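I would love for you to help me understand the pair of lines that follows before we discuss the fold together.
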Amino acid sequence: QVQLVESGGGLVQAGGSLRLSCAASGRTFSSYAMGWFRQAPGKEREFVAAISWTGVSTSYADSVKGRFTISRDNAKNSMYLQMSSLKPEDTAVYYCAAKRTLYRRVIVSEIEYDYWGQGTQVTVSS
């Protein structure tokens, strides 16, 4: 089992940047595919980005492609989301998620993830 804790959220002006972190407990972090999701007020949670356990493969939602970068440091049991050129529509609670897998794949489907963090609020002002 793994526990996830997000940090790094906050208030930023449009065009600004933020870096979210997801710290994971456990000794087998490198065996987990990871992802970021977000939920805006009144909307369903949506996929943002995902990364394989090796860190080699990544996937992004079209809405963030070219602006966000997902990465991970297995030695530090951490995953990151570098967000640049932020827009007001990026405002949401951001969640990290994990799924233990033997395969070097990215997982974009929310229902496949087994573990979730509590979320961190990102607010982008116009």
The two ends are 40 Å apart (CA to CA).
